[in-house]
Amino acid sequence: MKRKLLTNTIKKIFFSTPVYDFIISKNVSAKVTNFFNESWEGDLENGKNFINGYINFYGETLNYKKSIWEKNSATSKWKEALHSFDWIKDLKLVGAGKSGVFVRKEILEWITIYNSWSQLEWRSDILGKRICALLGNLNFFFSSADEKFQQILLKSICKQGNHLIKNNLYDVLGFHRIYAIKGIIALSVSLNVFRKFKSAGIKLLLKEIKYQVFLDGCHYLKSPSKHIEFLLNLIDIKNYLATLNIEVPKEINQSIMSMSVAAKFFRHPNGSLTTFNNSSHVSLKKINQIIIRSNSKKKVSSHQNIGGFNRIYKNRLYFIMDCGNPVSEDVYAGALSFELSMGKYQIIVNCGSPYINNKKWAEAMKSSAAHSTANIDNINSSDIIFNNNDKNKRVAKVWSKVKKRDGSYWIDSAHSGYKNYFGLIHSRKIHIDTSKKIVRGQDCFSKSPSEYLKIPKKYSIRFHLHPDLQTNVTRSKKKALIKLPDGSGWEFLCSEPKIEINESIYLGEKQRIIKNNHILIKDSLFPNKKIKWLFRQI
Questions:
Q1: In Å, what is the CA distance from 391 to each residue of 244, 383, 386, 388?
Q2: Model pTM greater than 0.85?
Q3: Which end of the chain is more exposed for a tag (fewer CB within 10 A), N or C?
């Protein structure tokens, strides 16, 4: 690890030198041999705001006076979005006249300021996004430009491309590598001087597919929105190769097919994505486009397990539960959480992921309390914050089995997240009767060693409700009544003496914070405590 850090430090020092700048400035005379178009629709309103001086990324809006490259107090995430140039597709919707001039002006200013290596702006994933955005929109701002602009831009793209290929993606890991690889393939397809790197780009892609995509089609991060984004990039790469009539490797086609099925798997009947594991809002239009363009006709079965998730969809009742191990790269403490829908209406959800760039919010949404599951003394089922070198990090191990009998389903699951903290195992048994519209559950905290490691005080079980629902607790506090938008009702019953309805938040729609409620059950904890509960249609 120390050797790797030292190597990367030396690389950064070298990249900053005039010698390296001279090296990547060689062979920058290129011709566009193939035009490919950005195939995903932008946001017209965002494009208009952009031109009028207001730039919004991740809920953070900044106003510029003369240039979008003015120094400002924006967060790094905001700057990453700006330097990716993905906003070009938004401006394209405004019209080729004013917006085309605007784009060319800002491109030239960027080249003036950032045409030599810098750590953030030239990071491989951002660089790859920028190359794809520029090359994918050439028909919009390039073809009508004068020869001088065309030469300046192509030289800059070549210089950036030389760096992208030479640095061997040393500065990005995991999910983000797909953007850099996509950039390499886009260069090889569009510019003559990079044609020879096509095979290398495809080889890198196949390696990442093997690492990032499970055999069942689920992306390894098990985050529905990141799954969708990876699939989108695969579709783009396939289309890049298709413009040159290049045979697409079977591994790419197979991954697109299997990931498309998994994408359907993660959708509620109303089309929206489940909000597990850092999943953020993706518009229904975009999801539909991705699935259509994947060209997969295969349907998801009534009961299926993908990526450790158990999903049941029958008689209009949709139930999905996280029965897999958390991903150590980005741990979320949502072990044994679930989501529930009836027809087009979502009932039980998880809080989702904040679109805003705020560390405290991000940590809060990783917590067990932000998921429809149980916790002990407000301790997360897995440690959500730790150093990569932390040998004592606590990550829950999850196991489960599913049985089907007489049209009903039983899920028997448990996790070890509290074993080394309290000496307890949390188990959750679920019975789903799709014909009677009943979801019956039992949470239990069983003692594993002879003595507690730490004495627990209270347990909490939360069921987060979709914001479209109305919820009330009866006077006895033993029942909660849930009203759906169409007027139909569900009820919640529990073996415990008191049910509470508390405020919560939902981040699964339209990139905004929405207030909602959650059902809360809490009480003192003793060994082998069993809490029985029931959701049913009335």
A1: 49, 12, 10, 8
A2: yes
A3: N
